[in-house]
Model the fold of this input.
Amino acid sequence: MKTNSILSLLLLLLPSVVAAQHITFEGTDEYQGIGVYDTWEQSPFRIGLLDGSHYVGLVENPDAEIDETIGAAPNPSTTVLAVQRSRFGSNTFGARIDLNEPLCLGTSKKYVHVLVCKPMVEEASVMLIGLGKRRDWEGQKPETEQFWVPIPLATPGKWNDLVFPITTNEDVEIYSFVVVPDLASPHLRTTDFVAYIDDIEVSDNPRPRFQLVNYPINFDAGQVPTRSDRSLSKLTFTSTGEDAYDVAVPTTTVYSNLTDEATVKAKAGGSVTVKMTYKGAWMSGYVYVDWNNDGQFTPVISDNRPTGESELVSYTFLNGYNSQGSSQSNGNSVVNGFITCPSFTIPDNIHPGIYRMRLKVDWNSDDAGGNSDPTNLLTANGGAVVDVLLNVHEEEVSISANQLNGDVLRTDGTALSDTPIPFGQAFRIKMAPAPNFTYTGIVLTHGYNLDGPEYVRDNRQYSSVMVPASSFDVESDEYTIPAPYIDGEVRIEGLFTPDTTTGMRSIGNNGLGKETHELYAIDGRRVAQAPEKGIYIMRSLSDTRPSSSRKVLSNGHCE
Done:
């Protein structure tokens, strides 16, 4: 696929980024070579019983046709890579692509975009494996597996832009990618099948480069209001056990996608009420939630009220009734400048997670995209559509840490994973480096499904933030995680490094006079410098007192 050729209005295009690696398979100069790889060491493809070259190769794109539903070809490429899924390999057998240049991530996270097309019936997840070696590990083989990232296939039988978030040790060099087309056990397969791979790109963008349209609207997303006498300016959400939450609504366009800045919180079994601040009259309010995360809002109405499966969950007027089944004399739901939708209940059995919620001001229409009746279009009747996220959470969330050469602990010294912590409340942690190690900070990931894609149907599932060592208390090595970050599962990666370099950070006045600075010494001790008293070696990393006033000279020796 060449992404800049997809221009359909019904295809979601995302901003382009500069890629560190980009392989389109249109020219053989884009990569070193192609082949197959299996993580199973006794695989017939690794011990020479089967020739992998017969299972992978460049072929004509099997699906370069225009999709009638979107009016464009999701992947118009001429040539793609084909791999035959073999029953004789393990479930991690796949196509290997050797890179022209090693990929060095350092400590940053990158995203590998891969177009994948599998037969309609093959729904198992796809995995990306990175082969490479650490520069600082002498003798490590360049085919050592450095990461494994599985991603569900969104749409079997069509091209999907799968986004694999990857991180490695800062000294790792990646020489090859392995795209595993089918993680299902080979024992479940009765025949082989062919999967297709294209347009591999490494970037900083976690969003798919394209996707079939999710959450459609029946007008252009940039449509400006056609009336000045009617406008939606604010939404107020009231949920059981939560503070009231206000969301300002821009009035410059009819549609507002606020999913990046507005998240409503609620608990399963709790109720939610939406109040819309609206200037005008003779309009009604509608609330939708995509409970099954399929990118659509599906209304199911029976006996003049939503069923348990309905994703239209609340409305003030639809064919003479509101969502509680009460008869309404007319659809003028605006009272004293507000449209107050009937409260609805979050299903008891809904899984904790992120869901898309849509709020709509319209006239007598259950279409989430807006009234499309030519005689009463939403864009003409003064309506509005707003999308936000809904975080359905439990009272407590899990917290864990994963790192080498040290621990991230509770302040009492116990493991983070021992017990869950309260949702939405600040939490304090403590760094505990191993001997002769120090720390540069943490990477804190919070949200839901932390091992899955960062975005599902363009809804962010989790976020990661880097917290530097300078944010920690210098005396206690503690840091308080802000309450907004405790919004789902919490996973912490401690960044520990050998205490062999000289670094300096301010620690304030420790009784040595004016401002004091700390220097990390090679042997694990630390050195304090006071502008008026010279440099002093401390007794230990935890000791802040001068050690016998031993002054360090410029040559590193003590007086």
